[in-house]
Amino acid sequence: MTLVLLDNDTTQVVRRVPQGEARREAVLRDLIAEHPALLPVHDLDPSYGRLVTVTRELSIPGVGFVDVLLMDEAGRLVMVECKLWRNPQARREVVGQILDYARELSRYGYEDLQRQVSIATRRQGNVLYALAQEVGGTLPEAEFVDRVTRDLAAGRFLLLVVGDGIAEGTRRIGEYLRDQPGLAFGFGLIEIAEYRHTDAGGTEHVIMQPRVLAQTAIIERHVIRSEVPGIVFDAVDSAAAARPTGGATTSTASNTAPRAVTETGTRWRSFVERFATDTRFDDPGQPPPKNGGNGWIRVPLPDGLYINVWRSMNTGRMGTQVRFAGPEQRAAFEALLAEREIIDAEFTAQDLEPPSWEDGEVAQINLSMPAPQPWTDEVEAEQRRWLGARANQLVNSLRPRLQSNGREMAA
């Protein structure tokens, strides 16, 4: 396929860049993220408004990374997966991949999506709503959140596979989609052809031509969902059972008389209060930290697990720790351990050191560092920052996976 440029009396034939020599997948991804209007979304569904890029490389824990997540001003979501058609994955595997993203996303609540977007963008607050407002959104925040929540629950997305050309047999993708039960989202196969030409002044110009190759009608489905989240009861454990092994220790006293308030205890309560105030969790559904006793804080996780945030005067160290005791928690640890490389990479992506994984009698995930005294106000402020950053990332990495594992076990 060629283009012909007519400029007064001159005619220039512009030939297409051969498939396989055009932009690489990462470059194509970045091009779409920077210029979302390049996609012919309105040819697929005219009801979409102006598109804005939410983020590229959105992490869906346990599944992978969505190349680009887009949204219009009303919060309607568009997922984009980029593949060069010379790539052997460019047919069934890429479609299966984007369907996996959509299925997992349909299990999300608004807070889950907000958490993953905050991680990817490194912005806090209701990032989705803020982006919608930036492109002219007029919905009140509560109505916007409800709209996105309904779309998530119904699996109502637009899925786009974008490539640089047509490979043999790619039109059979429609047959593959029809074989998928419970399809509840629109799908589009988009080709973006690349052309290059050099003008009389020697300047090279690039022309991108998007076009829709195939699409499906949106299929509505009846979904039976449990809208009642699981209820977790905190067991009344002994302090010794819940206390981190490397953390602070306290002396044992009789339960028949109240303990005297010490200066150390007063200072620790102040530390906990400031930690709870200063620490910002990306996950808006994360319950607040709780004072677990002198020297440690509990940050709740699903399945009765906790992040133990601790500081020890005796050892001169501090850290964060998740302990997995009992058969069910042990099973949760094994599931997390299977994704260790991915979880470690999530820490390094946030400029944090990966945790240590201890597969002992009581499995543990730990991060710790020296905390020598004196603990001045300035030192404690830095300690809270260090501990808060790691507690936040543990929530980001572990909470969605534990929730997903819990859903699979309940199914």
From TrEMBL:
The record, for InterPro entries, names: tRNA_endonuc-like_dom_sf
Question: Which domain of life does the protein's organism represent?
Answer: Bacteria
Q: Which Gene3D superfamilies match?
A: 3.40.1350.10
Citing just one GO molecular function, the answer is:
nucleic acid binding
Region feature Disordered, mapped onto this chain = 278-297
- What name has this protein been given in UniProt? DUF4268 domain-containing protein
| Record organism | Sphingomonas rubra
